[in-house]
Amino acid sequence: MSVPEATPAMDGVDPVHFRKTVSCFATGIAVVTCSDDNGDSPHGMTVNSFTSISLSPPSILVSLKAGRMHRLISTGGWFGVSVLTHAQQQHSAYFAGSRGEESPAFVFRHRVPTLRDCLAWFECEVTSRIQVHDHTLFVAQVMNCDFVSGKPLLFYSSQYFSPGADS
Ligand SMILES: Cc1cc2nc3c(=O)[nH]c(=O)nc-3n(C[C@H](O)[C@H](O)[C@H](O)COP(=O)(O)OP(=O)(O)OC[C@H]3O[C@@H](n4cnc5c(N)ncnc54)[C@H](O)[C@@H]3O)c2cc1C
Fold first, then answer.
1. Which ranges carry the Flavin reductase like domain (predicted)?
2. What is the CATH code for 28-156?
3. Which of 65, 83, 92, 160 to mutate to test the pocket of ligand 1 (most atoms within 8 A of CB)?
């Protein structure tokens, strides 16, 4: 009979250790988008907290900390989600705050902008907000979505990967 490995205590987990441990869960990268206060120019924010919740009705959530996107979605009630392709890694840096290049191009849908040439996009209406510590879970119903064939951008152990690449 094998002896179980010692597990750390369930309380008092070091935040740096937690961050490294949770980064073992590979995700894709998405950009949450909405229109600014005037309803014309688009704003985007990189996330990897995007997840699907239910099929009926089709629902998703994103977990957002306080900031401009949080405020805009709280006010407007709608947002877009664009799933990035492996060729759009620079978009992830741009919408995480680097803003170091010319803005990526947007496509205006029914209610919100999404990113041009993304792998998949969703147009979402917020149905509930759940405050959890310093983040808010925005639960939303998907009102429109579509996808193309292609390869996603992957995020694992705090690094970007392309499917099929060795590193
Ligand atoms: C791979 C990756 C995945 C990410 N996933 C997520 C995710 O799932 N969820 C998430 O929330 N972020 C995530 N981020 C970080 C996020 O993309 C950046 O923080 C982005 O700049 C936030 O955009 P914003 O317009 O909302 O923030 P801005 O308004 O531009 O503010 C920038 C930052 O300032 C701080 N700030 C601004 N206003 C306030 C305020 N009133 N109170 C407290 N702090 C404030 C916040 O830290 C905020 O993120 C991710 C980043 C990367 C690279």
1. 22-162
2. 2.30.110.10
3. 65
